[in-house]
Amino acid sequence: MFALLKRKNPYEQSARALYAAILEHIRQPSFYEGGGVPDTLDGRFELLLLHVFFVLDPLADEAGGNKNGLGQALFDVIFADMDQGLRESGIGDMGIPKHMRRMMRAFNGRMHAYREAMHGSDMQAALRRNLYGTLEAVDEEVLARMDAYASENIAVMAALPLAHLQEGAVSFITPRFNKN
């Protein structure tokens, strides 16, 4: 009887597939070796958010809201996984909300910053501030390559039929970073 009260999100399966594809892609060592992304919890989180942006932007309307429920479903899947990860790392029930709020603020801030950068602002500045924000200095050549990588992915995602994303199908540009 209670199963009738709990509606299953029709996009949940697609959102899980998209999230799995993002996670698989960002585990490539080239991001951390030649791409200069810090191989830390923060660095990996920032790289995750950048790739989530690539997927969410085509799903957003001009105001940044969702065209359909897939964007919200992806957000829900990501943060359910983050919640589980925090619990598995030993953070107690009382500390979870504080950490989740901080991650959600970071998520919203990054989505806004990358969207603004994509539409005329400076993507390199957004990448320097966010993706490379924990580093004292960023190699300008690495930053330029990451900017090109981001631009290519944004273009590919914009050209991707919405039906592909709704089916949970996504593929990213292969990162081409030389090991420093």
Could you walk me through the main structural features you see in this protein, from its secondary elements to its overall organization?
With 180 residues, the chain is mainly α. 63% of the residues lie in helices and 0% in strands. It contains nine helices and no strands. Helix 6 (96-118) packs antiparallel against helix 7 (123-129) and helix 7 (123-129) crosses helix 8. The longest helix is centred in the middle third of the chain and has 23 residues, at 96-118. The N and C termini lie far apart (59 Å).
Features:
180 residues; mainly alpha; globular
Give a brief outline of the structure:
The protein is mainly α. The chain has nine helices and no strands.
Task: Set down the secondary structure blueprint.
Blueprint: H1 2-5, H2 12-26, H3 29-33, H4 41-56, H5 70-88, H6 96-118, H7 123-129, H8 140-159, H9 162-166
| Count of extended strands | 0
Number of distinct helices: 9
Report the principal-axis shape: globular
**Which band does the percent of strand residues land in?**
under 5%
SSE class? mainly alpha
Chain-averaged pLDDT: 89
Distance between the termini: 59 Å
Q: H/E order of the elements?
A: HHHHHHHHH
Biggest sheet character: none
Helix content: 55-70%
The total domain count is 1
